[in-house]
């Protein structure tokens, strides 16, 4: 993605949003980042894992949508299949960016060169009167709320890391011909350590609203079965016979 620019009526009045732009965007995303409040809904359709950003060291919560980079098994004929739609798709092609000037806060940014936009047809960004369209207003509200949600997601990651509840795993993909492929970099909740917490620790997690998404992450791992079925129905990909989950004991986190 090119560098974002601040969305301005004077410069971008003529732009339209292509129909299904958010689905086209998602179709090339094998991972979709989630906010902590989305995990419960996401886990009913998608396998959800924790990942540590190698640059910032911040814990991310992401839904896995494919076993191959740059693809998404949940977009068919440019239509998103699950009933749950991640916030990252709902706000696309708008993004939150730092406003110009020190202490200016945040503003809505776009990549005007993106294929999401057209100058011929689609959903309007601004009305003929120069006011924000309904779509832009909704996206702006969601983006503004996401600032606090990002903080909550960051705090969630820090809390489970501090309690030693992050477990690094590998997904070992087995093919019918006997070949194997290992996907690394994924983490989940260490259920044994979670169950070993004191009543006071569990209450603290519950009071912060962390227990529900933790259990949702654990349960979502069964959605790998759905992902395997989708993979095996798609002729672009090699058939998977099974996936085994192995603990990656070589990873430690701090």
TrEMBL record:
Pfam families membership: SapC
Top-level taxon: Bacteria
Protein name as catalogued: SapC family protein
Organism of origin: Thalassotalea euphylliae
């Amino acid at each position: 993605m090119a560098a974002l620019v601040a969305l301005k009526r004077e410069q971008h009045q003529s732009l339209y949003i292509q129909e299904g732009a958010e689905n086209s965007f998602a179709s090339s995303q094998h991972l979709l980042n989630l906010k902590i409040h989305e995990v419960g809904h996401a886990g009913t359709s998608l396998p959800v894992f924790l990942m540590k950003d190698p640059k910032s060291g911040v814990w991310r919560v992401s839904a896995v949508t494919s076993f191959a980079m740059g693809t998404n098994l949940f977009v068919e004929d440019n239509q998103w299949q699950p009933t749950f739609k991640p916030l990252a798709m709902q706000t696309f092609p708008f993004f939150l960016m730092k406003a110009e000037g020190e202490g200016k806060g945040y503003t809505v940014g776009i990549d005007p060169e993106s294929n999401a936009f057209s100058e011929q047809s689609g959903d309007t960004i601004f009305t003929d009167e120069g006011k924000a369209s309904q779509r832009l207003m909704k996206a702006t509200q969601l983006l503004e709320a996401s600032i606090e949600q990002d903080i909550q997601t960051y705090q969630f990651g820090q809390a489970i890391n501090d309690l030693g509840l992050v477990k690094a795993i590998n997904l070992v993909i087995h093919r019918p011909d006997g070949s194997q492929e290992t996907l690394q970099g994924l983490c989940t909740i260490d259920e044994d350590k979670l169950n070993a917490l004191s009543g006071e620790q569990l209450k603290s997690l519950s009071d912060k609203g962390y227990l529900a998404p933790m259990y949702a992450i654990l349960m979502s791992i069964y959605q790998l079965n759905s992902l395997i079925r989708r993979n095996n129905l798609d002729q672009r990909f090699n058939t998977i016979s099974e996936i085994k989950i192995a603990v990656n004991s070589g990873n430690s986190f701090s």
